[in-house]
Amino acid sequence: MTAINTFVTMWRFLLTLGPSAMVILLLNKGILEQRPDIVDEPHRVRSIRIEDLRDSYDFIVVGGGSAGCVLAARLSENPHWSVLLLEAGGDEPLLIDLPQMYPVFQRSPWDWKYQTEPSDRYCLAMEDGRCFWPRGKVLGGCSSINAMMYVRGNRRDYDHWAELGNPGWEYANVLHYFRKMEDMRVPGYDANKGYMRRSWQRPNLDIVLKAFVERLIIEPQSRRAVGVLFEYGLAKHTVRATREVILSAGSLASPQLLMVSGVGPREQLQPLGIEVVQHLPGVGGNLQDHISTSGAIYTFDSHQERHLLVHCAGRCSPKESVDAFLAGTPTASSTRCPSTRSWAFVSTRYQDVRLDWPDVQLFMGSYGYGADGGMVGRRGAAITLENYAEAFEPLLYQDSFVIAPLLMRPRSRGFVQLRSADVRVHPRIHANYYDDPHDMAVMVEGLKMAHRLTQTPAMAALNATMNIYEWRNCPEVEYLSDAFWECLARFYSQTIYHPVGTCKMAPASDPSGVVDPRLRVRGLRGLRVIDASIMPTIPTGNTNAPTLMLAERGADIIKEDWRHYTNGGW
């Protein structure tokens, strides 16, 4: 029966490719014709001509993601400084501006397509037992392919950073930078747009898109980063930095670039033939992520209008979907971000509620894996066809929702490991979810809390009913027991796209540290890392806003450090 179900599921996916592609084409056409604010052709970022590349710049920023865009914009505010931004991807396509479309851009040319190493403890329902980790390969980075949720985090997160020996990072000091971002008053300029489209035409800022950085150039004798080697087209280019190289390639690529450039754990570099410039055992370690469990799907009886696009393959034509969306009808607006319609922070019995530092975040998504026929949800989570056929095919196109718990402060730590000296070869990602049993205990409590929400009178009125077919993953356990919830957690493990910590900020007394509190790489000159990889511990909530914050503060730190050398002052 399993083989038959899988065959039917596969053919249904193939048959829905046509209508799905038509929706995308019509949306793109509609935006071109009716939404000039999204097209924004006059302000779109353009690369310089490669023949106009200067021999040297004051600052080279590697990576045009969330942090890199902030840094390039802020550093180029000083007209006496020249700044080069190198981004491996291109400018964002039109449909990226629609948050509902973010899963479409996962596993696409705008995604680096990382995967974790196989495990027998998590992601058991996923292809090859691997968790799929999307990372944005586009100007704006992950902020361009995420669900556009802004969460500061908890004040205790940043106070804890300071307590770990990182002065200046306490909440009272970083709050200013959150408020600075929240004071954006230019309509239409937010995600890449808020920083780059207003600054890219400055004469002292050059941007090269589709520039693949291969290596940082570090002089062994002076122990100074003096430039980068990158590929553009079919040619390799070397460009020098007279002040600093700033690595903002993200929590996976930043440690990889450090290691292939000779900065990292000696025991990893030497077997691959990489000359060790600076032995830093912490590079690639301390990996943390907000693991979630997304498999607890609940069907319900809906008397309201169907959500747009989610059901379009089975219930409306592609043209009807696009027309409704562009017209801004209530049905269309309800899909602004249906997979994360609301969220809440809660404390389980393992967390002292008096601390006001919740250990679980609950996401309520307005559709489940079966509601869209698997075209978006199954593909984004990389659930196998076999598992989808067994557990979700019976709910095909039914109204459903999910309440997914996220583990806020995991005790488990993973690491990034080089598999090759070639930076084009993705590193091994050891997520190590649930290595610490406490993490699973908290996740089980989070799932039970989410289930209790579905038993409230309001949910009962909608006949909210859990998908019992997921029990097929572990039929030997008691239904709704702790073992049942643990089974779901191990099968339907899913990243919420928040890897951090692999270039840890720490005082000199911490041997696992990579950068100091002013974000300078230990033992080297002229090199900083400024992105989510420097976070010593993961914040309570979505990490994009904290990443923007640390880039804003990082830019100010650089300005402070160079103030007395800068012509004209500040």
Distance between the termini: 72 Å
- Evaluate the radius of gyration: 24 Å
Shape call: globular
Which range best describes the helical content: under 10%, 10-25%, 25-40%, 40-55%, 55-70% or over 70%? 25-40%
Largest sheet: number of strands, sense, barrel closure: 7 strands, mixed
- Counted by DSSP, the helix tally is 17
CATH class call of the largest domain:
Alpha Beta
User: What is the arithmetic mean of pLDDT?
Assistant: 86
Give the low-pLDDT segments.
Answer: 304-316, 328-340
CATH architecture of the largest domain: 2-Layer Sandwich
Structural class: alpha/beta
Binding site for FAD: 138, 213
Pfam families: GMC_oxred_C, GMC_oxred_N
Family: Belongs to the GMC oxidoreductase family.
Cofactor: FAD
Describe what you observe in this structure.
The strands form six sheets. Strands 1, 2, 5, 6, 7, 8 and 20 form a seven-stranded mixed sheet that branches. Strands 13-14-15-12-18 form a five-stranded antiparallel sheet. It has a two-stranded antiparallel ribbon with strand order 3-4. The protein is of the alpha/beta class and 570 residues long. The protein is built from 17 helices and 20 strands. It folds into two domains: 2-34 and 97-137 and 291-495, Cholesterol Oxidase, domain 2 (2-Layer Sandwich); 43-92 and 142-150 and 189-283 and 500-534 and 542-565, FAD/NAD(P)-binding domain (3-Layer(bba) Sandwich), CATH 3.50.50.60. 29% of the residues lie in helices and 17% in strands. α1 packs across α13 (385-391). The chain is globular and about 65 Å long. β7 and β8 form a beta hairpin.
